[in-house]
Design a protein that fits this description.
Two copies of one chain form a homodimer. By secondary structure, chain A is of the alpha/beta class. The first copy, chain A, is built from 14 helices and twelve strands. Chain A folds into three domains: 44 residues, lambda repressor-like DNA-binding domains (434 Repressor (Amino-terminal Domain)), CATH 1.10.260; 125 residues, 3-Layer(aba) Sandwich (Rossmann fold); 133 residues, 3-Layer(aba) Sandwich (Rossmann fold). In chain A, strand 1, helix 5 and strand 2 form a beta-alpha-beta unit. In chain A, helix 8 runs parallel beside helix 10 and helix 11 packs across helix 12. The longest helix of chain A is centred in the first third of the chain and has 17 residues. The structure holds a DNA duplex (30 and 30 nucleotides).
DNA sequence: CCTTCGCGTCGAAGCGCTTCGATGACCTGC
DNA sequence: GCAGGTCATCGAAGCGCTTCGACGCGAAGG
């Protein structure tokens, strides 16, 4: 039971190999009758083009690389959601996805690119001074980044508009009449790493609070319950009249509610809480959290679309910021 | 700046193309001096073999498929950890990983296999009556399954020994002197899906409890705080002297502690809690949970090893059960 | 009626690599 | 001193596909 090749199909259909190829690729006109005959043979023999041969001859592997980070502080569920959406979208464009971890570093990217294993790259969680960025500029293959390096010039970057997300939270709380609010942020290491999104959220939050004339505070925070409890307590001790809390730390969101309960503050009666986190986390919490979602699915879909456009040789914007949306649930009033 | 081919290397080193190939593959003896000359040229020119050409000529793509599920009830962080360990291990064997989602179904597997895109497949979360299993038996490529279908004959399956995990929990609680214990399980849908692992845990738990002559109870449980709270309350109402709780539901583990707190039971003074969950979840909880870990990393590594062995034509065991380990933390005494 | 032009199809030349059989060069042992 | 055997290297034949130029044929145009 040898594997079926295009030559087998050609013989079965009584046409030339090239004709089969053209039927399958649609790159030249083929009469309806011939096309049908070929298609029938393809089905009858169960033909599947050999990926290697196709890649060799056409210089297109129909595979894109997805490079995921796996460092501390990354939210795994979101990453997974993102990956899923990338795979699903890529399949819609008839491409497959090669999964890579960031710890292979620039060399890993160079390897898959130089060996023509992939036609394009998708990098998640790009840092401000990312050592992979200079390499990407040299590569023959196009790439799309999730996140923004210091100089995005000549690159294609996608991200949630975190500054807007921060502002949106401040706006929401201000609109509800709160006068003293605070941001409970990501673990300190995230800020230090300079990934950018944490700072941008903070900046947007502060800007929004200022614009509304609110008293605003902000703290990084680790993810353990004890740390969250301590930070919330600190915030509350320093500002007894604090009545609005923005949480930009998915892992901590649930703990914040627990801590407030223990500290004798009711949510939302005493303190309104707004989270910047995926919807499922917000919904699972009790009370359900008013939240600005991180639309992992949208980001993935958009990133793949941009990459596919680049593969087609189309021009695409350097920067794509996804508009955040605030969903009001039970934790704010 | 054309891409460098093996012919360029051969010319640069003053040898035949085949000699370069043999140097790189090590499949024939090459003199030390020639080898060095070739290696120098490779480096000087920055040569990387073209993956498509290599795959075509050698019939080995050096890529394996990783098929991940994305259904309700799956724990995303564990999935991600698993994927990471698969990628890392595969790289050690000089292979890359093609990421697929289970929703492409049997057709998707058939596609990547028939097109020789991959040399082998790794399927996560196999169900008792998995529609993909009959296909796997027909494929030219070897595969390894995480989980067990009804008839594992002729396949290669890896999993945590969930029955042992359940028993281990019962043993631990019995050893601490508890007489009435209960298992708080996965969401009902997980049992209904017949994935097997939930039942096996339950069976192991019951068996262990019986052997020690304990009173034992068990309930499936959804993941929301409210549901967990309700289930814990029910358990406690029915058995006021319940003093040991096994939680086999990662998402609920944290909520269980919260519920017990609200219900006025101290952990571990009044109730000992043992979880079957990844270490990080157990450690993050407060108090830290005594737990049997789901060793996602081990499973991934082991699965890749088995697949690589099969690719080399070696015989491997049909069934590999990974021994669970119980880590004692603060939540049991 | 003959030229011209598309349209549909074919044949062949690669794409860059692996692998097989062949070829020398050199050594060994009788 | 020569048959036999190694060892290192080479050349060439594919692997299965895409793509380019060529070609035959019927329709349209002069």
């Amino acid at each position: 039971m040898r594997t079926v090749t295009i030559a087998d199909v050609a013989k079965h259909a009584g046409v030339a190999v090239s004709t089969v190829s053209y039927v399958l690729s649609g790159k030249r006109a083929i009469s309806a009758t011939t096309r049908q005959r070929v298609l029938d043979s393809v089905r009858a023999l169960g033909y599947h083009p050999n990926a290697g041969a196709r890649a060799l001859a056409s210089k297109r592997a129909k595979v894109i690389a997805l490079v995921l980070p796996l460092r501390a502080g990354m939210n795994l569920p979101v990453l997974m959601r993102f990956a899923t959406s990338v795979v699903t979208t890529a399949r819609q464009y008839d491409h497959d996805v090669l999964l890579m971890t960031a710890d292979e570093g620039p060399d890993g990217l160079h390897r898959v690119a130089a060996s023509a294993l992939v036609d394009g790259l998708l990098l998640m969680d790009v840092e401000i001074h990312d050592p992979r960025v200079p390499l990407l500029r040299k590569l023959a293959q196009p790439s799309v980044l999730i996140g923004f390096p210091a100089d995005p010039h000549g690159l294609t970057c996608v991200d949630l508009d975190f500054a807007r997300a921060g502002t949106l939270c401040a706006d929401h709380l201000a609109g509800l009449g709160h006068r003293e609010i605070a941001l409970l942020g990501a673990p300190r290491v995230v800020y230090e790493r300079g990934t950018g999104f944490a700072e941008r959220t903070l900046a947007g939050f502060v800007e929004g609070a200022l614009r509304h004339g609110l008293e605003a505070d902000a703290r990084p925070c680790e993810e353990s319950f004890d740390e969250v409890h301590a930070t919330v307590k600190l915030l509350l001790d320093e500002r007894p009249r604090l009545s609005g809390l923005v949480v930009h730390n998915e892992a901590a969101a649930g703990h914040v509610l627990g801590a407030l309960r223990i500290l004798g503050r009711r949510v939302p009666e005493d303190v309104s809480v707004v989270a910047i986190c995926p919807d499922d986390i917000a919904e699972r919490a009790s009370p359900a959290l008013t939240s600005v979602l991180i639309p992992a699915e949208d980001v993935g879909r958009q990133a793949v679309r941009l990459l596919m456009a680049k593969l087609e040789g189309q021009a695409v914007p350097e920067s794509t910021l996804l508009e955040p949306r605030l969903t009001i649930r039970e934790s704010s009033r």
